[in-house]
Amino acid sequence: MTVHDALSQPTAREVLEAFYAAERVYMAAGGAAAGASFDQMAATLHPDVVLHQTPDLPWGGEYVGHDGFRDWSVQMSGHFDIVDVQNAVLLTQDNQVVILCDLVTRTRATGETLMLPMAQVVTVRDGQITEFRPFYWNVPRYVAATRAAPAADSAPAGTTAATSSSPPALSATEARP
Question: For the chain, what are the domain ranges?
């Protein structure tokens, strides 16, 4: 890599912002089941990307490469129509990024919206994400939400009701005090 190449590469923050924006669009469009394009997300991912998900979640496992990541996104979009990283604080050192955030999800089965803390460790090299390792808060809550029967007229107690069908955009550049 030349000095010019290094200067023209997007920062880790820019790569993650592009990924999260593409992920929001993909989920809102209905994911794979609705024929949503994976191309915007794939553009931010290295061809050999590795996603490590805890085996305690319905979508748990190791997902390798674009095909593996697409498989994960099919599972997530089957459970949720909103997957949105909000209130993100990005801590970077070299090619490693730690993201402290709130993960907002809305289940397809019930319309229940969850907003729970999450941390992620992400590696970015040459302008693409090479590794994701998310750490979810309250894994049993996610499991219960994905197994719940459709709700009647209201969200279950302890959830945050969605205020619109389109969540606010990621504000990764606004750090919490």
Answer: 3-147
Give dist(CA 169, CA 57) in Å, integer: 26
Q: What is the pLDDT along the chain (177 residues), one digit of tens a residue?
A: 555 455 688 888 899 999 999 988 888 887 877 888 889 999 999 999 999 999 999 999 999 999 999 899 888 888 998 889 999 999 998 889 999 999 999 998 899 999 999 999 999 999 999 999 999 999 999 999 988 765 444 333 343 333 333 333 333 333 333
Beta-carbon contacts of residue 96 (< 8 Å; ≥ 6 apart): 121, 122, 123
d(CA 81, CA 106): 6
Buried b (16+ CB within 10 A) or exposed e, 25-56: ebbbeebbeeebebebbbebbbeebbbbbeee
CATH class of the domain defined by 3-147: alpha beta
Q: Supply the pTM of this predicted model.
A: 0.76
How far apart CA 42 and CA 93 sit, in angstroms, is 24
Cβ count near 137 (within 10 Å): 13
Lookup: tokens for 102: 């709130």
Given the structure tokens 């990924």, which residue do they identify?
A: 19
